[in-house]
Design brief:
This protein has 555 residues and is α+β, with helices and mostly antiparallel strands. It contains 19 helices and 20 strands. It has a 20-stranded antiparallel sheet, with helices on both faces.
Length: 555
């Protein structure tokens, strides 16, 4: 095992946190742990990132039971075996014989520092640490001795030393920190600490610092107030988590901006319906925090007018304050130049151009009540907003914009309901040479009507007809698949973003390019993914909490 293999383990744990959900149903038995990462005692407070898998690696094979066919079961098992083989390549180590007998229920990997010698002038060499829980201390000691003995037989320089009563083994190149003038390897080290963990690092100094972190508690991550604050928000059972320290992740130039939100924790929870990724973002002390986004104690009633057939839906309350909320404040920190409202506006670019409006100025600013937005499979859009004095004024403004664009506002009956249509009239010459008559062709640009306490807008008459028949054909609010996803989130919350994955993955990848990379790494996960639902909830003055629920195709 060399530094490349060590880094592969770190990557695999990260991918595990994003890809373990390649399952279809987990039945009544949940896979997860109520524990938090015990190995956090080896991780320094300032570590940029730590990821933990909190179940035994062999439990991953249990997930093979949830795929639909025996062929897929074999494929999943083969992929897991390939991961093990790639990590142990060229080591002479066999997982089944040498590792499986002792490996426990936690694997934690961390970037302990961004640069070992903290001197950017000679390049960067991050310090990595890997902690693997052991259920048999003697067998794990035998493994470490075997690992380094095989490297020595292969020609590596073996160095054995005692540090604070712990036996450390390292192989060459064992270079002093000051000699790390490039991004070359700095050696590989391992040790068994007590009877609980096997530690590996990419330099002896990193390993020594990890051991020091235990003996000097103020140095390790468990004593971080922000880490403990974030841990308190985690679900009871989780298969893994990741903790990010934004100041340590940021460059020196970025740190001059003094990020408002300084840390984030993400935990994964498996339930019979799918995978829930919950995240808590913690603000720094004495930071000026914008007000939280508005929440609802129950799902928006506007959803009852969104047909169940939609492939994309967004619901919530008070769009007018979204751009000045704490959610926007965090988004601006992690995605400079892209606002939360732009995430809604981008998919609606065609609608915005067709109507000749600015969504933020001409619609979002007057939406203070409940709202729901839906996209039909034929790309027609539906927008439902709770009526108010300000909303009524906004609707009149839209009618004025339509008139200014020389659109005709026409009232017509539809499904026992009077609706208003914005139509573009175009003269059409008569087909007959003997006739000089001119007829008018009407192209509908938009339709709106009032139902109860809600104003409904659609991009076509057909879409409006579907809305007016939701009481017969079913609405999203009553759809079992949608309810299974939204029930994963507590109430009150800020609403939902619901995405049919197969129909909208191109849009999601365009908005969030990192999804394309995750899809390559976790192909079984995304191939089985049916829908993605996102919500924000339980927000406090210095905390942002939310989740993403991944629902998989059922058997």
């Amino acid at each position: 095992m060399n530094q490349k293999s060590f880094f592969s383990i770190l990557v695999i744990v990260v991918l595990f946190l994003t890809g373990i959900g390649g399952c279809k149903s987990l039945g009544a038995t949940l896979i997860g742990s109520q524990k938090t990462p015990a190995a956090a005692i080896f991780v320094p407070k300032q570590a940029p990132i730590m990821v933990s898998m909190l179940i035994n690696p062999d439990r991953l094979e249990d997930l093979a039971q949830v795929v639909a066919s025996s062929k897929e079961k074999r494929k999943t098992k083969d992929e897991l075996n390939r991961l093990k083989t790639s990590v142990l390549a060229n080591t002479g180590i066999d997982y089944e014989q040498d590792i499986k007998p002792w490996v426990g229920d936690e694997i934690t990997a961390a970037i302990a520092s961004r640069d070992l010698d903290r001197d950017p002038s000679n390049g960067q060499q991050p310090g990595y640490v890997l902690a693997v829980a052991t259920k048999d201390a003697q067998k794990s000691r035998d493994f470490v001795e075997l690992l380094f003995a095989k490297k020595a037989i292969a020609g590596a320089n073996l160095v054995i030393e005692e540090f604070n009563g712990i036996r450390l083994l390292s192989n060459s190149p064992r270079l002093p920190l000051e000699s790390l003038s490039t991004k070359s390897e700095g050696g590989f080290s391992g040790a068994v600490v007590g009877n609980d963990f096997v530690l590996f690092a990419n330099h002896p100094q990193v390993l020594k610092e990890a051991i020091n972190n235990v003996q000097a508690p103020d140095l390790n991550l468990t004593t971080s107030n922000q880490y403990q604050q974030a841990l308190a928000q985690l679900p009871a059972r989780k298969v893994g988590l990741a903790f990010l320290n934004y100041p340590s992740l940021s460059t020196e130039k970025e740190n001059q901006l003094s990020p408002t939100y300084e840390s984030q924790i993400v935990a994964l929870e498996l339930n019979p319906q799918g995978l829930l990724a919950e995240t808590t973002i913690v603000a720094g002390l004495d930071k000026e925090i914008l007000p939280p986004i508005s929440t609802l104690s129950q799902p928006s009633k506007a959803l009852q007018y969104i047909p169940a057939s939609v492939s994309l839906a967004i619901s919530g309350v008070d769009l007018s304050k979204l751009s000045s909320s704490n959610l926007q404040q965090f988004w601006a920190q992690v995605s400079p130049g892209l606002s939360v409202t732009q995430l809604i506006e981008k998919p609606l670019a065609q609608l915005q151009a067709s109507w000749g409006i600015n969504l933020k100025d001409d619609i979002f600013n007057w939406v203070q009540g409940e709202y729901a937005l839906g996209k039909l499979p034929n790309n027609d859009w539906i927008f439902v907003v709770e009526r108010s004095d300000r909303a009524i004024a906004g609707i009149e403004k839209l009618n004025a914009i339509a008139s200014a664009q020389e659109l005709t506002v026409t009232s017509l009956p539809l499904a026992n309901q009077k609706v208003s249509a914005w139509t573009q009239l175009t003269p059409v010459a008569a087909q007959s040479a003997s006739s000089s008559a001119i007829t008018l062709s009407a192209k509908v640009k938009g339709v709106h009507t009032t139902v109860g306490n809600y104003e409904i807008f659609t991009t076509s008459i057909d879409a409006m007809e579907q809305v007016l028949k939701t009481d017969k054909n079913g609405s999203l609010a009553d759809n079992s698949q949608f309810l299974a996803s939204t029930n994963a989130f507590p109430q009150p919350n800020a609403g939902y973003v619901y995405v049919d994955w197969q129909a909208n993955q191109a849009i999601v990848k365009q908005q969030l390019p990192i999804i394309s990379l995750l899809e390559i790494a976790g192909k079984p996960f995304f191939s089985n993914l049916r829908s993605l639902t996102i919500s924000s909830y339980d927000n406090k003055e210095d905390l942002l909490t939310g989740g993403a629920f991944f629902k998989f195709n059922s058997k």
